[in-house]
Amino acid sequence: MTRKREIHLGLFLQGAGHHVSGWRHPHAEAGSENFDLLRRVSRIAEAAKFDMVFLADGLTSGVDAHPSTIARFEPLTLLSALAVVTDKIGLAATASTTYGEPYHTARAFASIDHLSHGRAAWNVVTTSYARTANNFSKAHPEHDERYAVAEEFVDVVRGLWDSWDDDAFIKNKQSGIYADPAKIHVLDHKGKYFSVKGPLNIPRAPQGHPILIQAGSSGPGQDLAARTADVVFTAQQSREEAQAFYKSVKERAVRFGRQPDDLAVMPGFLPVIGRTSREAADKLAELDKWTDTRSAMPLLEERIGHSLADYDIGGPLPDLPISDQLRSRAELLTALARRENLTIRQLALRVAAGRGHHIVLGTPTEIADRMQQWFESHAADGFNVMPPFFPEGLEDFTQMVVPILQERGLFRTEYNGSTLREHLGLARPALSSS
């Protein structure tokens, strides 16, 4: 589809807010298990014409986890509920390729695509944290093998989504034929990691294939995204870093025979908005003031992949081997600490606020300016918006920043279609067997 390039916006939905202390704000509501809140903020994003709402997921918990992730709904169940209380906004969620099965994943997302009339998206993750294996009867694979598994997993899912022609279910009462036997495609996949015969027991999805999202930034992660993804979520701290990533993943897509516009790059973007720049800075300082270092350190250690208990938190981040856990995020945070000469405590507070994503402080105009700069300089095709707390953090963005982007002709004022694929300006895929 050829149309004017516009910013894409996703709402990264964390029920207790993205800042680790966001839930403590006097105006905050909280709870990733609070359906009333999740429904309301999803509808706020839809009223603002966001492309999608996105639910991250993990398969472990603990009292030292981020408040948004200690307790939360299973995301595909939640997407099914949101499908019936929204009309146009895309519905995206995470599902693991390391701790899942292709048939279940293909069936679930195809079902959500039908329930939502073409608004489903799967965020493909390999699951970084080794402790996840404690809840499953398998060992945790190393980094590159996780991506090898993911490559085959995604291929199987896409093949299963093409189990039936679009018009296979003819339901002809006169002939007595419900499904045309000439329009079924049996996958019969036998690979290194999976053996899946098929076909999938659901008609082809309204979008053909639900949208695929990928968030890995390592070399294997970028290759998986460039070959298969429609959207790439990423974390970048500067426009220069974002431009380099954008160029890299788009060039990789071309090497896989795709067009650069076949995938949208959407970095995480945490806006802290004030009537003045000082008010915005004070708002973040207030949230940081409520952050106990003891609650921030586990989040940093999780992303660095090492315990920092033996180091002075008032001193610099030590030289540590890059973890096999979250390789790209560990590299990003290490580079940030070195570039800005941050102490361990200061780095922990940055992670507590945005987990390594780009934090922007300022007036609505300053926030819009930053987004426009990144968009027009090909550092991003859009942004995964991460309010520090809900619902006010999202309301500030939709009521004050979105109108500026619309006035500048950078963001839609109405939806141009009804499916997520149409929101993203992507063509519906043909059957892989055709």
Essential attributes:
eight-stranded parallel beta barrel, single chain, 434 residues, Luciferase-like_dom, TIM Barrel, 13 helices, two-stranded antiparallel sheet, Luciferase-like_sf, globular, alpha/beta
Outline the structure in words.
Residues 25-377 form the Luciferase-like domain. GO terms for molecular function: monooxygenase activity; oxidoreductase activity, acting on paired donors, with incorporation or reduction of molecular oxygen. It holds the Pfam family Bac_luciferase. Keywords: Flavoprotein, FMN, Monooxygenase, Oxidoreductase. InterPro entries: Diverse_substr_monoxygenases, Luciferase-like_dom, Luciferase-like_sf, NTA_MOA. There is one protein chain. The chain has an eight-stranded parallel beta barrel with strand order 1-2-3-4-7-8-9-11, surrounded by seven helices. The chain has helices at residues 35-47, 75-83, 102-115, 143-161, 219-228, 239-255, 277-289, 293-304, 327-340, 344-354, 364-376, 392-407, 420-423, and strands at residues 8-12, 52-55, 90-96, 120-125, 189-190, 195-196, 211-214, 231-234, 264-273, 358-362, 382-385. The chain has 13 helices and eleven strands. 48% of the residues are buried. The longest helix is centred in the middle third of the chain and has 19 residues, at 143-161. Helix 5 (219-228) crosses helix 6 (239-255) and helix 11 crosses helix 12 (392-407). The mean pLDDT is 92. Helices cover 38% and strands 12% of the residues. The protein has one domain (8-275, 358-423): Alpha-Beta Barrel (TIM Barrel), CATH 3.20.20. With 434 residues, the chain is of the alpha/beta class.
